[in-house]
Amino acid sequence: MAKIAGSAESSRAIFWTSIAVTYAVVMLFPIFWMASMMVKPNDAMFARPTVWLFAPTFEHFNYVLAQGFHWSLLTSFVLCLVSTALVVIIGTPAAYAFARFEMKLKDDLFLFTLATRMAPPVCLVIPFYLIFAKLGLLDTFIGLTLAYMTFNLSFYVWVLRSFCRDLPVELEEAATLEGWSRVQVFRRIVFPLLRSGIVATAVLCFIFAWNEFLFAFMLGGKAVQTLPVSIPKLITSQGVRWGEMAVVGMTALLPVLAVVFVLQRHIVRGLTLGAVKG
Prior knowledge:
By secondary structure, the chain is an all-alpha fold. The protein has helices spanning 2-38, 42-45, 59-66, 69-100, 106-118, 121-135, 141-166, 169-177, 182-211, 214-219, 227-230, 242-262, 264-271, and strands at residues 235-236, 239-240. Strand 1 and strand 2 form a beta hairpin. The protein starts with a helix and ends in a 7-residue tail after the last helix. Mean pLDDT is 84; it is low at 274-278.
């Protein structure tokens, strides 16, 4: 009986492992295909039947560098990093205040904050354009940073507020009885407990800003041009430059993968925070 049970358990493990491997291969194949297009010559790119063995070329990389796409990549990274940092600095105390403090019209104020995220971006970009034109913030790093911070802040506050509400209030009350101020309680107790939730939510905000196109297109310009806005330049009158598109696509994927890889421990803990309660 023990051998039969062991054999059944082993077969079940092999079956589910096969399913997981198959799923991973299916999900990763488009990335592999795009990576191969980075070094595939144009004459072999759409050959039929498919050419699997070819002499690699680096002409796609040369074109991307010549067109200055690396500066757009740097602009996007710095812009997303700064705007996300501002969202964390402003949004963390705001989320904690919504979760812990009683105030007049709190629910209405929170709904108003959330409504800025629920509105379609096309409804907000025109008012942003008119305001920024009056303030001289069009095609500036500061202007685009403020725009990114604005549409991510409401999402950050909304998500982090639920994390704050799941924290045991007894810890804060005990620290208050010991004579700690509200600032000390937040810095020494609340913030360490919220660290994983903050990281997980901040990574989502970074990804939203990284993929954003409409605000960058309308409020940016030649001086501040993000990578999503630069990509359409690869669609020319002669056709789409697929090799260069693959280079830019893989390059755009790397920073997000690096951030997720470095912070994966905090992201997993943050996304599961409060999922299981005793």
